[in-house]
TrEMBL record, chain A:
Coiled coil: none annotated. InterPro entries: Anti-sigma_ant (IPR003658), STAS_dom (IPR002645), STAS_dom_sf (IPR036513). Pfam families: STAS. It comes from Sulfitobacter faviae. NCBIfam families: ant_ant_sig. This is Anti-sigma factor antagonist.
Amino acid sequence: MEVSAKTEDRFCVVSVLHDRIDAAAALEFKDALRRAAAHAPPVVILDLHRVNFIDSSGLGAIVAAMKHLAPQRALVLAGLTPAVEKVFTLTRMDRVFGIFHTLDAALTAHRE
Amino acid sequence: MRLSAARSALCPFEITVHSGPQAAREALTLLLDALSCLSLGAEEVCVVRLVVAEMLNNIVEHAYPDPHPPGPIHIACHHAPDGLHLAVSDEGLPMPDLQVPLGLPKEIDRPVCDLPEGGFGWFLIRDLAKDLTYRRLAQENRIDLRLPVGLPPR
């Protein structure tokens, strides 16, 4: 599972470069995100705009990542595609995460 | 009406994959390829992908758990006016108490450290699939369900 990380003063953007976070990829994703966010500032923005499918294992991995980063760092989500958004909405996990429609919106909000 | 006639032209078919980490991906590739003639919308494809992925991941994890030997997973599919009917079967361990998990919604109003990381699968299946039934037949688990996709235009 490839991710890219870019760090600014107050936040770090971790972009998932694969098109799905499913059961076969969930463990790798968790490891990759932990590595990428190891020394991250207080906010980690997870850029999901390339991801067009997650299943419950992928959702669980994202929740696990948020728990791993807490309480010092917050995980927020950006660029959810419709299929990914659907899983968050159905499970009501959209109420748990800060969610930005686009990466730009997340960047703007955290640069202010 | 021509559209609805074309839509029901999907011949019943069956696919088989071998249990393992890639089983859900393989099954979805085969299944979505076979369903391409239905020209399902993006939202409908999403429903099919989610339900089938969750069903197969459950089978891989619970019907054929390590160190039990892996085995086949069959999906029989036919299209009817009320949607896509799937029969998913395996030759693995039976469901606990011979019942499908209830898949109740998870409690999420709690501190981050107590949030659930699992247990969403059956909730998603039960939310998206209709008429779900489970049977244990001899050495086989069989789940029948209907996905309300590929419906004739109203």
